[in-house]
Amino acid sequence: MYESRLLNNLPRVREAIERAAIRVGRDEGEVTLVAVTKAHPPEALWAALAVGLRDLGENRVEELVEKVGLLGRDAATWHMVGHVQGRKARQAVESADIIHSVDTIKLARKVSGFASEGGLRVPVLVQVNLSGEAAKSGFDRDQVLEAIQEVLELPGVEVRGLMTLAPFVDDEKVLRRTFVGLRKIHEEAGKLPDYRGRELSMGMTNDFELAVEEGSTMVRIGTALFGERLR
To answer: What is the CATH number of the domain that holds 82?
Structure first.
């Protein structure tokens, strides 16, 4: 089921990314497609690998751990794209190749501690809450540059860039405002002495084309590839 679904859906998603990139003079090769398999069974992961998807994302740490254990750490580049509770930070550090959702200094310090303990250097993205929605995690606009600087100073952590979640709306102006806002913060962060981030993780099934137009380098796609979640 999943392989046939991906054979149908993946070309459409890739073409949409390409068209969005061309519209603004970008190379579609600058955009990493992260296939998010949240709440889908192992069959979905095997199918993803079979069609050439190598960047796999999970929203829940326990599901990431389970799937990494099943497929193996080297089977894919594993992205932790959802909220990480402090008590699960060690598991995230041990299982993820990159954590998109470092949303508090407390979590950043935990990641740093576990990374240093294991002799690791963990790539992370700093999550920014640009929608102002209380339900969304991330640093506020007015505190994020200070937070980035603090994370940059932590051992065992490599800041690869920024991440945000846009509001789940159809209003293109609202979505673009969110994506432009993250890009501008990224540009401002570039003035920090040690910031070398290149990644902007923004865009999901409902808004990834706009995100690509506004500079996204990582789009996190689940439903458009795998269909509705099973649970």
So the answer is: 3.20.20.10
Give residue 230's pLDDT: 60
- Residue 111 CA to residue 159 CA, distance in Å, equals 12
Domain-located, residue 128: yes
Give kind and range of the element (H or E) at residue 40. none
Within a domain: residue 100?
yes
What pLDDT does 231 receive?
54
The DSSP secondary structure of 46-86, one letter per residue, reads: HHHHHTT--EEEESSHHHHHHHHHHH-GGGSEEEE-S---G
How many whole angstroms separate alpha carbon 138 and alpha carbon 128? Answer: 4
Beta-strand ranges (E) seen in the chain are 32-36, 55-58, 77-80, 98-102, 122-128, 157-164, 199-201, 218-221
Work out how many domains the chain is built from and give that number.
1
- Residue 164 falls inside a structural domain: yes
Q: What is the mean pLDDT of residues 180-194?
A: 97
- Please tell me the distance from the alpha carbon of residue 113 to that of residue 228, in angstroms, as a whole number: 37
The SS3 call for residue 38 is coil
20-27, long-range: CB < 8 A, 24+ apart: 20/208, 20/209, 20/210, 20/212, 20/213, 21/212, 21/213, 23/213, 24/212, 24/213, 26/212
Domain extent, residue 201, equals 2-226
Q: Provide the residue type at 217 as one letter.
A: T
Provide the 8-state DSSP code for 5: H
What pTM value is reported for the model? 0.96
Based on the number of CB atoms within 10 Å of its own CB, is 191 exposed (0-12), middle (13-18) or buried (19 or more)?
Answer: exposed
In a domain, 231, yes or no: no
